[in-house]
């Protein structure tokens, strides 16, 4: 028996490039080939991606191919927004490349609370508790308001440092900032 001929390349029914990239990103490495095919299809079709679509395929490469491949995509993106920078920061953090994450963070035009939390958390996940607390202090000195995630990670860092004095002060900062709910 012979196989039917492949379907002609036409518009993608009931799917958008952003949706396809998100599905592939959620599927992980097993979906890298499908994500690359969708990316190639996008390029061949002449579709000019918005920042949102570009961030979706950046995230797909970060999750499916790793930080190094995602960085190649990031470097050729014509427009990078905070989401683009945070996606790369997260990719480096997940890869355990703290030096690359820190260099990228230092190059960010306008890091937001997600950027700060990603780096504070990355230090903490690698048992670099002093660095985690130090970055929190730097964040505060720059006037960046912490959020609940910041405090949760900071408490974990205090536990890792076995610093009860610092740890009991965190809920006081949390309440003073109106996050103590």
From TrEMBL:
Q: Which GO terms describe its biological process?
A: RNA modification
Keyword set for this entry? Repeat, Transit peptide
Recorded hits in PROSITE patterns, A to Z, give: PPR (PS51375)
Q: Please tell me whether the keyword Repeat is annotated for this protein.
A: yes
InterPro entries linked to this entry = PPR_At4g14850-like_plant, PPR_rpt, TPR-like_helical_dom_sf
User: PPR repeats: which residues?
Assistant: 81-111, 112-146
Provide the GO MF annotations for this entry: RNA binding
Matches recorded under Gene3D superfamilies = Tetratricopeptide repeat domain
- What is this protein identified as? Pentatricopeptide repeat-containing protein
| Gene that this polypeptide is encoded by | gb07344
């Amino acid at each position: 028996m012979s196989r039917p001929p492949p379907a002609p390349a036409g518009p993608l029914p009931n799917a958008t490039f952003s949706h396809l990239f998100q599905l592939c990103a959620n599927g992980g490495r097993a979906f890298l080939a499908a994500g690359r095919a969708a990316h190639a299809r996008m390029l061949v079709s002449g579709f000019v991606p918005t920042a949102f679509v570009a961030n979706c395929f950046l995230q797909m490469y970060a999750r499916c191919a790793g930080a190094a491949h995602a960085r190649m995509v990031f470097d050729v993106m014509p427009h990078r927004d905070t989401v683009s920078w945070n996606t790369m920061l997260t990719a480096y953090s997940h890869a355990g490349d703290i030096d690359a994450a820190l260099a990228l963070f230092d190059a960010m035009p306008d890091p937001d609370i997600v950027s700060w939390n990603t780096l504070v958390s990355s230090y903490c996940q690698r048992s670099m508790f002093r660095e985690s607390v130090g970055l929190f202090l730097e964040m505060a000195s720059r006037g960046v308001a912490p959020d609940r995630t910041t405090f949760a990670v900071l408490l974990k860092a205090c536990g890792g440092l076995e610093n009860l004095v610092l740890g009991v002060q965190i809920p006081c900062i949390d309440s003073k900032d109106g996050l103590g709910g």
